[in-house]
Amino acid sequence: MKRNGFFPSRLSEVARWVGGTVVGDGETRITALSGIREAGRGHLTFIANSKYLPLLDSTRASAVLTSREVRSARIPIIQTEDPSLAFSKLASLVNPETERHPGGVSPKAVIGKRVRLGHGAAVEAFAVIEEGAEIGDRTVIQAGCTVGRGVRIGNDCLVYPHVAIREKVEIGHRVIIHSGTVIGSDGFGFATVQGIHHKIPQLGTVVIEDDVEIGANVAIDRARFGKTVVGKGTKIDNLVQIAHNVVIGPNCIIVAQAGISGSTTLGRNVVLAGQAGVVGHITIGDNAMVGAQAGVTKSAPAGERLWGTPARPLARVKRVNAALQRLPELYRKVEELEKLLKAKKKRVRRG
Questions:
Q1: Contact in structure between 290 and 308 (CB atoms under 8 Å)
Q2: Domain 9-94 top-level CATH class
Q3: How far apart are CA 197 and CA 330, in angstroms?
Q4: What is residue 1's predicted lDDT score, i.e. its pLDDT?
Q5: Is 244 a catalytic site residue?
Q6: How far apart are CA 31 and CA 12, in angstroms?
Q7: Per the residue annotation, which of 162, 198, 244, 281 is the catalytic one?
Q8: CA distances from residue 331 to 325, 336, 337 in whole angstroms, order as listed
Q9: Which CATH number fits domain 104-314: 1.10.3080.10, 1.10.10.10, 3.40.50.1010, 2.160.10.10?
Q10: pLDDT tens digit sequence for 311-346
Q11: Which helix (H) or strand (E) holds 117?
């Protein structure tokens, strides 16, 4: 299989493309990329997680990208610093553009007054671009999207079908937004008077910085005043809720079904695992990690590892869990001690 002039190739050539080291036959012929379980003759695959190393003995691939900790295998390998990243680079070389988007404006799109479209921008059928919006160069707005009044979107962005971007939201360059996401929805604010919930106007906006990717069906609320901010390079998985006035620092990872309550700040490189929940008005420091389904109720310092509900430092949670595993044994010992104590009391009374 030959694509874009890259395959078929010798394994030694592939290693040069990714800066790797061949162990084994560098003349091995590579015709395609594949997952390790699906791979066949001529295929190059990769192993990024050590738990999959046993598959080296069963894969039908002709060669494997590995970490430098792997010294040898029954088939040729390319040792790299990061096999997953190396494989991704190869995939980009082989398929530099997986999907082509038509330029220009569909006659079935609705474009408001004073809209500015950059060079090479595309607006597909049934998209609505409201008054005063700005769309950057080469940015693609796919079918059925709504871009509100005064929205500004930078260059080289991709907005998938059925995304709603509310009024006055600001989006940087090279941002990807997947289907079903709503950016700039009203923050959840109500004042309860005599049992009646009165809506509090949400007058702020949302700022999405450069190189952010936002998954499907994410909700990012506008600030009550000021800005809700998603920092540069942050990646957000599907089904995440980000409340009003939240500030997320650069290069964070927010995994599926996580929720961040209002006015909370995340530092840079913070990781929230799946279904993690964070209360409002706290700060999570740089490089902190919150485990799956954790409930964070207090601010956390930089570099902290949190898990559990309420979330505690990971080392403490492990000790507590280890103790919990011994509860049946401890319960039996307590029963035995109680029996011995009762027997001793009876002997004392008889004596």
A1: no
A2: alpha beta
A3: 50
A4: 36
A5: yes
A6: 13
A7: 244
A8: 11, 9, 10
A9: 2.160.10.10
A10: 988 888 888 888 889 899 989 999 999 989 988 888
A11: strand 116-117
